Structure formats: C-alpha cells, structure tokens
Amino acid sequence: MNRAEELEANLAEVEERIAKACGVAGRERGEVMLLAVTKTWPASDVEILYELGLRHFAENRDQEASEKVGQLRHLEEARWHMVGRLQRNKAKSVVGWADQVDSVDSVRLAEALAKAARSRGTTLDVLLQVSIDGDTSRGGVAVADVAELAGVITRSGDLILRGAMTVAPRTMNPSQAFQALVSVVSRLRDDHPTATHVSAGMSGDLEDAISHGSTCVRVGTALLGSRRLTSP
Q: I need a labelling partner for 192 at 20 to 30 A (CA). Which of 126, 127, 160, 202 fits?
C-alpha cells in the first residue's frame, strides 16, 4: 500500500467513526468539521488529503508551518489553523500564514495577534483555548477568565472570536471536560454571537466529544499514523 492509499483508507475509517458518532448523537454529519493535524508530516501528505477532500489543516510550530504553507500556496481552498502554544513574539509570523489561531489563552497574546493583523490590514479568526481543570501551565485560559479575554478579543476589532477549544486533561473524565467546554461556549454566545465553534476531541476520544456537541474534531494519529519525530 502506497502513502496515498494508506491515507485514503485512514480517512475512510475516520469519516466512518465521525458519521457513526453523529448518528448516535442525533446530529447531522455536516455539523462536525474534521481538522487534519498535519504537524511534523510533509507537505506531500497535505496534498494527498486535500485531493481526498479535506480543506482544514492544523500546525503547531510556526517555522515548520510557515515553510509548509509556502510550499502549498497552490492549494487555494486550504485553510490553516495554529493549534499549538504560541509566544507573543511569533504573532506577526503566524498571522502571515494562519487563517485561524485556535490557541489564544491570554490578553497579551490576543493584543499581539490583533496588532499583527492590523499591520497586515486584515482580520484573524481565533478560538479561546480553555483550561477546563484550571491548570494553565499546560496552556489555556482559566474558565473564570474567559469572559475578560473574550471581551479583549472582540473590542480589538482585528480579531474575530469564533468559539473555544480544549484538550481533555488526563486527570479528568473526557466527558466532563467536553461538557464543560460546551457550557463555556454557550455562555460566550450570549455576548459574542460569532463564538459558535466547539473544538474538542482527538483521535482517541472524538466520539465522546461529538456526543457532547463538538463542532470540530482535531485528528492526527488516526489519519496520518504515529507521530514522526521532529528534528531538533
């Protein structure tokens, strides 16, 4: 089996899982976006997945992503997401290639991204990364601080708040984490009508996330295989 056949088979399995989970939850398949986590994988894999119909791709390292996106400018409908922890000094570079930053977790980062977007004369879609268990050392804004950060983002005029994302903590039942995120987004929508997206669920727990209302599952391993080691 060559790489294209491998990715096609993997995608078919993932699509079947998503469709089945949607059916069980009484939801339409179109309610859940599949975000392919292509970090550490070559541009050629993205091209294959694009030919298979995927349009949303996620990266977590600015330098790698910038180079990869540069190689794939011909994929005109590809939409790129930054999903990793982001330092403020990388904001200008990330705004140069990312269509959406899914990991905004501080006022200072939001301000840096807004400034970078403004300097390019554009707007940037963002998600809040929420730390459901309150351990912000792993990334994410505490639930108690979500409203403040959302307000900063909306008032900037350069960022468009699209919703929130989380990674289920290992110390918490995933169902609890996903339900908590849905509750956060539900409250966000009251003051920020554009904040409709719930990004939750990965290769190992996407069914659980979909059952709790996730609108985006981030899938890497199930699509592309075990993570390749990155160079130092």
A: 202
Question: Which 8-state DSSP code applies to residue 138?
Answer: G
Query: pLDDT tens, position by position, for the chain (232 residues)?
Result: 799 999 999 999 999 999 999 999 999 999 999 999 999 999 999 999 999 999 999 999 999 999 999 999 999 999 999 999 999 999 999 999 999 999 999 999 999 999 999 999 999 999 999 999 998 988 999 999 999 999 999 999 999 999 999 999 888 899 999 999 999 999 999 999 999 999 999 999 999 999 999 999 999 999 999 865 444 3
Euclidean distance between CA atoms 133 and 138, whole angstroms? 10
Q: Which alpha helices (DSSP H) does 26-157 contain, by range?
A: 43-51, 62-71, 91-97, 107-119, 146-156
User: Considering only CA atoms, which of 35, 18, 36 is closest in space to residue 27?
Assistant: 18
Task: Return the closest-CA partner of residue 202 out of 231, 170, 229.
Answer: 170
Both tokens of 151, joined, read 């307000």
Cβ 185 vs Cβ 148: under 8 Å? no
Instruction: In whole angstroms, give the CA distance from residue 162 to residue 194.
Output: 5
Distance CA 22, CA 155 (A): 35
